[in-house]
Amino acid sequence: MTADPVDVVALTRALVDIDSTTGCERAAGRWLADYLRGRGWSVVEQRVDDARFNVIATSGDPAPGSSPEIVFSTHFDCVPPFFPSRIEGDRIYGRGACDAKGILAAQVASADRLRSDGDSRVGLVFVVGEERGSDGARAANEAAHGGGSRFLIDGEPTDNRLGVATRGILRLKLRAGGRAAHSSFPELGESAIDKLIDTLVELRSIALPRDPVLGRTHYTVGLIAGGVAPNVVSPSAEAEIMFRTVSDAAEVRRAVAPLERRVAIEHVLDVPPVRLRTVPGFDAAVFPYTTDIPFLPRWGEPLLFGPGSIHVAHTADEFVSIAELTAAAGHYVTLARALLSS
Length: 342
Ligand SMILES: [Zn+2]
Hints:
The chain is an alpha+beta fold. The protein folds into two domains: 8-166 and 274-340, Zn peptidases (Aminopeptidase); 168-271, Alpha-Beta Plaits, CATH 3.30.70.360. Helix content is 26%, strand content 28%. The protein has seven helices and 18 strands. The strands form five sheets. Strands 1-2-6-3-7-17 form a six-stranded mixed β-sheet, with helices on both faces. A four-stranded antiparallel β-sheet has the order 12-13-9-14. A hairpin with a 2-residue loop joins strand 1 and strand 2 (52-58). Helix 1 packs across helix 3 and helix 3 crosses helix 7. The longest helix is centred in the N-terminal third of the chain and has 20 residues, at 97-116. The two termini are 30 Å apart. The protein binds zinc ion.
């Protein structure tokens, strides 16, 4: 067991320098599991699929099969493209520096500190797949034996503020059908593209749910496709819409039901909005994105906190401030102590 404190900057860079684009997290998982074992953690590599696994660590001191009271959790997959770490001034640049390998390093540092101060009630749940469907978190939820933990401190970039609530997601696909015809005789056909356009215009005038904390529902028409050739009346067209929800998705589905006069509506994905626990003494804010939290209910009442800004996550300039990262490790300790004594 190593007694030296975790070097948050070195740990962040070591993780960033291993490409772990979603689907290819194996090498990073292997490195992380070995690193935690080297520091005396008891580590389970939880299978997610043939090539990938979550890394779940406990202090090893409690009775076998018992769960920690608090877990720190984040993901170690990243969006593409990979680029390695470099330091410029107070910043660590690199893919995952902000989302979420710096966060992971800060969580390891704080858990290590709590453990070396004699607190064995803290665990670590690091998952794959957050950036594409959350298959890692879904699997990790199954690993919460014996009732899981009391509190889940999830890490995503919040500029070291606690989340009050996060929006949910509803993805719907609109499919319009028509009848092909030579475009010189449009009256012989039925344009699917025209139906789809009319539907999308109608959608703009539909009142969508509002919430006093999260604000109004908004949406993006992110994908649109249709038609076969410029001189053919289009026989089919479809659009995919991502709503950022503020309440139960059923309310949105009820509001858009009148669109079914012109198109078929296919339900693709629904992730609920989440209310989060806060702790006095921390800045708090609402965040418009979703996280792995809805997929980890067995790991306890959720909190959301992490260094770095969501505005640089997923960009070519992704970075985290070293000062913010170092401060985060201390904030995580404070949060855990407040929760453990509650
Ligand atoms: Zn993330």
